Amino acid sequence: MLYEKPAGHPDKLSTDRGRWPRAYPNTQKKFSQSKIYLAGFSWGSVVGLQLAQQYPEDYEAYVGIAQVINLKKGMKIGQLWLAQQAHAHQDSLSLATLKRIRSNDSTFCKPGLDCFMKQQEILSQYRGAVYNEASEKEVEKALAAAQDYQTYDWESAFVFSAQRLEKDMFATDFSNLKQLDLPVYLLLGRHDWNVPSVLAEDWLKRLQAPHKEVIWFDNSAHNLLEEEPKKFNKVMLEDVLHSARDTSNLQS
pTM of the full predicted structure? Predict the structure, then answer.
């Protein structure tokens, strides 16, 4: 995200792709590397994919984690899945809620973030947002052990950013992005219906890139870094780093 005002006044945040700075000079100086690996998670994957598109020469590879392609399309896909779950469980309340969301009932929720969050409430019931529910307790333990996070208000921070990025996020559509000039890895939760992994998988099938690969996390939904942290670290170190270096060596 970008600040449209100086630091300290972040009342206007933007994901305007025309204003991204190049990472190249900073990475050279800070890491003594000409290139770095670029990763983006969830909403951060919008920023990541924009940077990968603009400056592919600056990065060894791009890693999209729970990659966003089109939030509006993703919501519709999630609604179809939720309807199947609700019918199977004879869940009339969730079906009624879905009907109001799908009919754009503005008395129930405003189109965009408000309806997205209403839908996420139902997704949580059916483990479409967090599949490995035991991971939530592990995250709580980790936060409790870290002094820096003792008084941090996560919910307020999320709402603050989400409200200011809402317009840009719901206008995002990478469906017509057909080519990237660097290796691309998508790390996707098999049970993610919050930002449906099937949409990202379909996009990657049509993408042209020096190397492209989907790596599935079978015990995860959206928050795969938290749901399968050991596998995530292993994949990044053993699959992404090694494979991307091999691809780079073949091209050089």
Answer: 0.87
